[in-house]
Amino acid sequence: MRIDRSRLHDAVLAGVVAAASVALFTLYGPDRLQAGGLPAGGMREPDPFGALLVVAACAPVAMRRRWPLAALCAGLVPETLLTLLGYGTGLSSLSGMVLLYSVASYRGLAVALGALVLSLLTYVTAAVAGPVRAASWNEYVVVTVVLVAVWGGGRSLRLRRAYLEELKDRAARLERAHASDTRAARAEERSRIARELHDVVAHHVSVMTVQASAARRVLASDPDLAREALSAIEHTGRLAMTEMRNIVGVLRTDARAELGPQPGVRDLPALVEQMREAGLATRLEVEGEPGALPAGVDLAAYRLVQEGLTNSLRHAGAGAKAVVIVRRDPGELDVRVEDDGTGPSGEGLSGHGLVGIRERVALYGGILNIGPLAGGGFEVRARFPLKDGQ
Question: pTM for this one?
Answer without folding.
Answer: 0.44
